[in-house]
Request: fold
Amino acid sequence: MDRINIGIVGCGHITAAHLNGFKELSGHGLLEDVTIKALCDRERWKADSFVQKGVGPEQQKGVGPEGDPMQAPPVWVSEFQEASPEVYSDAAEMYAKAGIDTVWLCTSVHTHHSLGLAAIEAGMHLLIEKPIALTVKAGLKLVEAARRKGVTVGVAECVRYLPEARIAHWAFDQGYLGRPQFSLYAAMGGYWAPDKIVAGTSWRHSKMMAAGGVSVDWMVHFFHYLRYVMGEVEAVNGIPLVTEPTRVIRNANGTILNQVRNEVDDTLTCSIQYENGAAGSVLVSWAGHGTEVNVPPIFYGSKGSIDGDQIVIDGRVPQPMWEFFQENAEPNTKEQFFPRGITNGFTLEILDFLNALKTGGQMETSGEQGVRDLSCCFSVLEAALQGRTMPVHEVYSQKAASYEKNINENWNI
Reply:
């Protein structure tokens, strides 16, 4: 593609993280022939708020803990391009009128299949915020439609582009850690515990609108991380729990302002079998009273391990991962993983997608990769439902689809 004309659908909390990525690319001179031509949100004021600094409504406040992408600093399109984007409140109208060839889909997950398929059928390329779709079947439909229409579909899976993920992948790939043996991760009792409405969005606690809780919203990130570092997941077992049946929003005085019935797991423990013979264990939760548990990803190999930001190789002094990478990686590898020295995951995923469009290839986090991540998530839920170890290929192939069956029926997927 000689020129890329983008329309962004959905201007909620995560949109600022994406636009800050565009702003960083512009600062490096990497947005030539790229224009954000339109912004769209059902609540039009949200789209208006991203157009020009000092004009229009104030952007909504971020949510979550400090450093969360949904707490990205305010940003306006006018900060990195001269042309002012058009604003829409209806995606179909934007697709028809805005003169775009690429859609950036940042809407709630239950709209991904309908808005995504409409963009693909209109011949547009598509980047979708994670997870790729509400169900595995919906994700497969998106990928197949893109293949049929000859357009590119990618997933905004920022975790793959983070330094800790890229360097861990590289360390195993180069043999520094030997053969992958075991992975470990645990996080419980954090910011959204014990019973907050996650991200202030009630739909995250509805099966029909979110499919799963931490098993999907959180674990789609981490399964991608695991697949990238440790290798393909062969099978899983899992115990998803609803430990807090009611989720709430409280004010500073503790008064409940809103509450919803929680239909999906807020806590998950699962065991993982990798195709290469390695194993893994995960405990994640949006619940938990009292003590907070946070065990950063730990990866064990036959020659060493990675613990958080440290690499520990047999016979060597433990060393920060970034320092080890800078000392041992080839210059072309450094540029491949972190072009122009960029380390922000959102910025790098945007650059990867734009490069894929320009070359006619696929980004690292392609639509196919997104479906495989989601298949791992649904394999955990399917394993719990059927009471057996669940091979991921059964879920990916739709041989095992009991958990998502009523979701697909509800949305006519």
The chain has two domains: 4-158+346-364, 160-338.
